[in-house]
UniProtKB/TrEMBL annotation:
InterPro entries: F-box-like_dom_sf, F-box_dom, FBD, LRR_dom_sf, LRR_FXL15/At3g58940/PEG3-like. SMART domains: FBD. Residues 15-68 form the F-box domain. It comes from the Eukaryota. Pfam families: F-box, LRR_At5g56370. PROSITE patterns: FBOX. This is F-box/FBD/LRR-repeat protein At1g13570-like.
Length: 416
């Protein structure tokens, strides 16, 4: 409360505080604002009118022009915004993000790409509408300062003189149109590449990955096989095969170059099943693998079970296993025999601490897998079972009776 006889004083900012802020402080403020709000700061004062025009990082999405009052002329508004940026912006643009996946068609971006190619662009994200892919113009392939590149719904057809982005460290391609040979060249011409994400359905041939600095690879699509040539640092691999393919990768040849692998996520083991006889274990151990996730496996299919068990035997330092079981039926006795504890007399999962089994139904094969992991994991701390159906007291009772190599092993049966 204000003292009696005195008016309450309200503190106000001196009128020139905003105008006297150092440029680097103003830039830090504007970078943290959405572009629409950054442009609106022009009304603060004459000195702020064009501050946004020197922003080195720009993000354009439909929030810039799509309002409740105006849901039409989207492409026209977008074109105007691009024109103002190219006309008013000064200085380099090191990071540019364009996210317009919901437009009915892709506007002409050639002038924008030419503009960016002359502005020292280092980080480029283009998420474009579905339909006919946008063919990247020749100006795109002279952006030789690129470090990070994300493309969605684009056609990549470089000129014959293109020798790659030799400074690129991150490459993410979603639903792009590119041939297998061009993709191989694109990757091999990027010797500093550390992160690679490919979500491409159109590939059908074998592709070779030659990336000596690659540490993370995430692939989703349809492909006959992936051949790793030089990837000595690859630590994280996520492999999702969308549809069934007749030709499979040889499991031993596939994993042989992965000497630094730590984290493996497979959506299914049929990527390897059927490529000759699946060995009991790989001819070598991968001693750095700590995390194995198989997000789809049918325990009624011998080839899939054999592949999964082959990997378990070949990862002696494994600490975490997650397996999602697919529903199925059949009477494949060899698949059941593979899961017997007696088949693992010479194997022990000495570092396995946590197991997660998802969508189980309490089948004989699932119970046999649980029994195997409990019996051969002396340091196991937790086995989490998320059943597909409601909790079954009979399954719980049977789990309680299974022998456990670890006195600390806790079995948690929890409906998701």
């Amino acid at each position: 409360m204000a003292p009696k006889g005195k008016k309450h004083c309200v503190r106000t900012l001196p009128p020139d505080v905003l105008n006297n802020l150092p440029e680097n402080v103003v830039d830090e403020i504007l970078i943290r604002l959405p572009l629409r709000d950054a442009v609106r700061t022009s009304i603060l004062s004459k000195k702020w009118r064009y501050n946004w025009c020197r922003l080195p990082q720009l993000t354009l999405d439909q929030a810039l022009w799509k309002t409740k009052k105006d849901l039409t002329y989207i492409t026209s508004n977008f074109t105007k915004i691009i024109y103002h940026i190219m006309t008013l912006h000064v200085g380099p643009i090191t990071k540019f993000t364009l996210c317009i996946p919901n437009l009915e068609g892709c506007p002409n971006l050639d002038n924008l790409m030419y503009f960016l190619s002359r502005n020292v662009i280092k980080h480029l994200v283009l998420r474009l509408p579905r339909g006919n892919p946008y063919k990247l113009p020749s100006s795109f392939f002279v952006c030789l300062q690129l470090r990070h590149l994300t493309l969605k719904n684009c056609l990549i057809l470089p000129p014959p003189t293109f020798k790659g982005f030799d400074r690129l460290t991150s490459l993410k391609l979603y639903n792009v149109s590119i041939s297998s040979k061009l993709l191989e060249s694109f990757i091999s011409y990027s010797p500093l590449l550390e992160q690679l994400v490919l979500q491409i359905s159109g590939l059908s041939d074998i592709i070779e990955i030659n990336a000596p600095m690659l540490r993370s690879f995430d692939f989703t699509g349809n492909i006959r096989c992936i051949c790793f040539k030089s990837i000595p640092l690859l630590a994280k691999l996520l492999l999702t095969q969308e549809n069934y393919v007749e030709e499979k990768c040889n499991i031993a040849k596939f994993f042989e170059p992965l000497i630094a692998l730590e984290h493996l996520h497979l959506n299914d083991t049929f990527f390897f099943a059927g490529a000759g006889e699946v060995p009991t274990r790989l001819p070598f151990n991968l001693n750095f693998v700590k995390h194995l996730c198989i997000s789809s496996i049918c325990l009624f299919v011998l080839e899939e079970v054999s592949c999964a068990l082959c990997l378990l035997r070949s990862f002696p330092c494994l600490q975490y296993v997650e397996i999602k079981v697919e529903a199925g039926d059949g009477n494949d006795i060899p698949a059941l025999e593979c899961l017997e504890v007696e088949q693992f007399s010479d194997v022990s999962f000495n570092h396995l601490r946590e197991v997660k089994l998802i969508r189980t139904n309490g089948t004989i094969r699932e119970m046999q897998l649980m029994k195997l992991l409990l019996a051969k994991s002396p340091v196991l701390v937790r086995m989490l079972i998320q059943p597909c159906l409601v909790e079954d007291s009979a399954i719980l009772a049977e789990l309680t009776n299974f022998q456990r190599a670890s006195p600390k092993a806790q079995v948690v049966y929890k409906h998701q």
